[in-house]
Amino acid sequence: MKLKIIPIILIIFFSIIFIIFFKGLQKTSIYTPDENFEKNVPSFTAKVIKTGVENSSEQLFSGDQFYLMNIWASWCAPCRAEHNFLMKLKVNENLKIIGLNYKDKEKNALNFLKELKNPYDKILVDGDGTIAIDWGAYGVPESFLIHNKKIIKKIIGPIDENLYLDIERLIK
Amino acid sequence: MPSLIGSYSLFFGLGCSIFIIFFSIKNFKNSSSFDSKILSFSLLQLLFVIVSFIGLILSFIISDFSNETVFNHSHTTKPLFYKISGTWGNHEGSLLLWLLVLTLFISIFLLNTKNLLKNYRILTLLYQQIIIIGFFIFIIKTSNPFNYIYPEPDEGLGLNPILQDPALAIHPPILYLGYVGSSIIFSSALAAMSLNWVSKEWAKHIKKWILTSWIFLTFGILLGSIWAYYELGWGGFWFWDPVENVSLMPWLALTTLFHCVLVLEKKSILTSWVIILSITTFTLSMCGTFLVRSGILNSVHTFANDPERGVFILIFLFSLIFLALFIFFFFYKVENKKINSFFWLSKETAILVNNWFMMYFLSVVLIGTIYPIFLDVISSQQISVGPPFYHKLIVPFLIPFLLAMAIGPNLNWIKSDLKNKFYLFLFLLISLVLSSLIIINLKIDFLINTVLISSAFYLFFITTRDFIVHRFQNLAQNVSHFGFSLFILSVLFNNIFSSEIITNLKVGETFKTKDVTIFFEKITKKKEQNFDAITGKFSITNSKNIEQILNPELRIYNQPNIVTSEADIKINLLSDKFMTMNLVQNQNYFNIRYQHKPFMIWIWASIFIISFGGLISIFKRRHET
């Protein structure tokens, strides 16, 4: 009798652990680090693509609508993946999308936009990648949602369906 | 091209499994001698996996960005060495390495066991094949390292710069040898159970595998720890990070296991312990893979957060656990219950006592690691378990643990007495006096420290005496236990005497305390292949007016754009001087962290000594007495 109870207890025990781990997987484990919350937009100046007009960060984010600062490059494959979502976001009137073209050739960048359409209200050039460092970016693509000159959300990697819905919810 | 060959090779490798299983089952029932076809197919499978792995390495070397893994983790400006080490510095590649080691080990196993029971070899192979097939499917289905992207990007995304480091380049392969070595122990324990062959002979044979895995695991952890010390810039070497814990747990299980195997080999007792620990060790290794790879935990080691992968490993892991349980309860018969009695004062009792302590440490680490997950699921609360938890629960129990470790080896098997053991008490007295003197002189009056240091000294003295008195009779055990006492002593003194200064400095400024003066002389800029370096020059003058120059560095990597801070460490026998600097955004000063850390080198050396003991044990012919 004793021998039968132990296996049953063990099986139940491991099954419970299994269920808990399984449930744990459904939860997202990416906690946004606190330091990225409500951080001020770094100050910088950058040239606009093609025209070469200098723009400072003060001017850029002065409006009271939301801004999405998107770091991208034509050579970056995941940028292609997120492009559709940027196009969808473009429809929102209270959101301006600013692109930061990262370590890219102007010609390639423009071709990229010609091919996939341009979601950006303004495109800045970051040829040597120094502006991206100011933003604390890890790589491309990366996006920052900005309101009142504060970064309210940082997205590392491409925007996907869930992140897209998040942004839509935040700017409502 | 290499990518394509690698990809096909992977499928062929999986195909081999079918033949291996077919011939094994046929051979298991019918013939009396081992079918050489099985061995040939195992070697063929190994060959395919090697080809596949080399294919991936080549793709990295030639920067073939049409391969998604290469694109995500490499860059043309990366030095060749890190292009190669980048192969296993990511989720897909590291799994391929797992598979490589799995197939390599089973081939070595087959080649090495020619004179053992035929059916035992076949069954071990079959159980191992279950694991191998699981990994093949996992790799092909959810983490194929040979995914193709089109159009081919011109440039890759680069390897995380903190991973671009020599220690970290070899840390994963070494650690995997340890992890995967435990798979052989698992399979062979299942096979031995199925055939009811858990015996002295089996113990003697599996002991080598246990020791080998243990040595690799120890080294792997050591390397990771050294890397964390100088690269992460906090000056610590163990952070109780979930992923570190995940490697510590199999280590604890494995350490316990080989002590048990020694007893099994000698006395034919503790069989259930050996079996359960064999299963536990591998389960913990797999569990580690699950926790790290599924993204259920958040840490530096989390390569990818893909729930599909998590679900796969989880189901796979629990299938193996249930398989093991099934075999344990249906095939394994505990024989000879009568010998399972222990005299209170004997070597096996000492080992058993310390086994229980090890199990206790293991449970503490296990609970600390997975409890946050449970809590999150059950109540949606997020907590993080930090060092105080582990310190409070583990440190007090180290005291009896150390004492038993010192006394145990000096007892006899079966039954011992305290005649001629006067020195055991003498040394205890000496240790107590010595550590009290140290503690009183340095005005650190914690009772627990005194007792802990005494017990560490006790082990230290006893093992030193054993070297002399027993004339290298028990060399392996002696060396390892001696190393462990050294380890505990260094960690304790390191903890008690470390000091730290954190301040902000501009170039040309000086920071003064009672003992030390830090002068920030200048910074220089330099361009390297894939990063720009800013090096600071600091002169440190101590109270005895001895000056030393430290050059911490900031590296701004080009791809991906990450700033890392490289510590400068001046090492000598007694202490390390450790310095890092960090950029403060939009300010013209740097954040400086200067640490004085005594006995750091002894921590590394002692772990080295511990594993060296294991090495001696493998190559030693004579039995332990």
Describe this structure in words.
Chain A is 40% helix and 24% strand. By secondary structure, chain A is of the alpha+beta class. Chain A has one domain: Glutaredoxin, CATH 3.40.30. In chain A, β5 (95-102), α4 and β6 (122-126) form a beta-alpha-beta unit. The radius of gyration of chain A is 22 Å and the shape is elongated. Chain A starts with a helix and ends with a helix. Chain B has 625 residues and is an alpha+beta fold. Among the domains of chain B are: 1-162, no CATH class; 499-598. Chain B is 62% helix and 11% strand. Chain B has 17 helices and ten strands. In chain B, strands 2, 3, 4, 5, 6 and 7 form a six-stranded antiparallel sheet that branches. Chain B has a four-stranded antiparallel sheet with strand order 1-10-9-8. In chain B, β8 and β9 form a beta hairpin. The longest helix of chain B has 33 residues, at 347-379. The N and C termini of chain B lie far apart (57 Å). The mean pLDDT of chain B is 85. At the A-B interface, α1 and α5 of A face α11 and α12 of B.
Secondary-structure-based class of chain A equals alpha+beta
- State the low-pLDDT regions of chain A, or none: 30-37
What is the end-to-end distance of chain B?
57 Å
User: What proportion of the residues of chain B form beta strands (DSSP E)?
Assistant: 5-15%
Low-confidence parts of chain B = none
First-last Cα distance of chain A: 63 Å
* Largest sheet, spatial ordering of strands of chain A: 1-8-7-4-5-6-2-3
Work out the helix count of chain B. 17
- Treating each run of at least 4 consecutive H or I residues as one helix, how many helices of chain A? 6
**What profile does the largest beta sheet of chain A have?**
8 strands, mixed
Secondary-structure element order of chain B, N to C: HHHHHHHHHHHHHHHHEEEEEEEEEEH
